[in-house]
Amino acid sequence: MSQQAISLTLHIQRKTIRRFLRAGWFPERATPHRRPPGINKFQEFLLRRWSEGCHNATKLWHEIQDQGYTGGRSTMAKFIATLRVPGTTYFGTTAAPRQREAKPPCPRQAAMLLARRPEKLKPAEQLLLAKLNECCPEIPVLYDLTQGFAAVFRGKQSETLQTWVSQARGTGLSAIGRFCDGLHRDEKAVNAAVLLPWSNGQVEGQIHRLKLVKRQMYGRAKFNLLRRRVLPYVAAPVAVSPQRAP
């Protein structure tokens, strides 16, 4: 094979292949030789200063710098850390881990708490909902409105929806008022959603599935393969020749 063919087959640059071929054998990488850390020749001085009572790593670092040490403080500090034992100065005692404060829920999490049925709430979620009620006076109002709106759809009563809209407008919350305005603009569609047993959920699910498949195949295949993956495959009928009489 040519160098270009080897490059295309192995996905390696031609310069690398040319270097391998000129070497005559596979060029094994040499094991790097680790140089001894520069702190070794200052260990005797550090041990002596440590026994004299100097346990400050920064101060010791400056002292060995005056003697020719060119390394960083972290290397020297690792060596000093091995000398720290209980009872010596600058010994870091293990402090008790602090309890992490619970983060407040995001708006989406709070909305899910308000919309979920009370009997399906876990104990931790019930406690969180109680804290939200204490912190925000609008939460109990929103909770009653959310549960009432869900009860309208479960009960399939359009008359109850009008009562709910009047109650929601009476709260004086601007966001709820805009939501009620949207319900009023699509009144016929909302009433149909409450009364009729049909839903477009199946259609929306199929659209979502089609978009996922299309995005997975983006830039990889054409429309013919997308059609085969989405639509059910129906095999063409096979023509059977009539059997000859014996």
Walk me through what this model shows:
The two termini are 59 Å apart. The chain is flat, with a radius of gyration of 38 Å. Among the domains are: 42 residues, no CATH class; 89 residues, no CATH class; 27 residues. It is an all-alpha fold. The relative contact order is 0.04. Helices cover 58% and strands 0% of the residues.
What is the N-to-C succession of helices and strands?
Answer: HHHHHHHHHHHHH
**With helices defined by DSSP (H or I, 4 residues minimum), what is the helix count?**
13
Main sheet attributes: strand count, strand direction, barrel closure: none
Shape: flat
Report the mean per-residue pLDDT as an integer. 80
- Percent of residues in helices: 55-70%
Q: Strand fraction band? A: under 5%
* Quantity of strands, as a count: 0
The termini sit apart by 59 Å
- Please state the structural category: mainly alpha
Low-confidence stretches: none
Cα-based radius of gyration, to the nearest Å: 38 Å
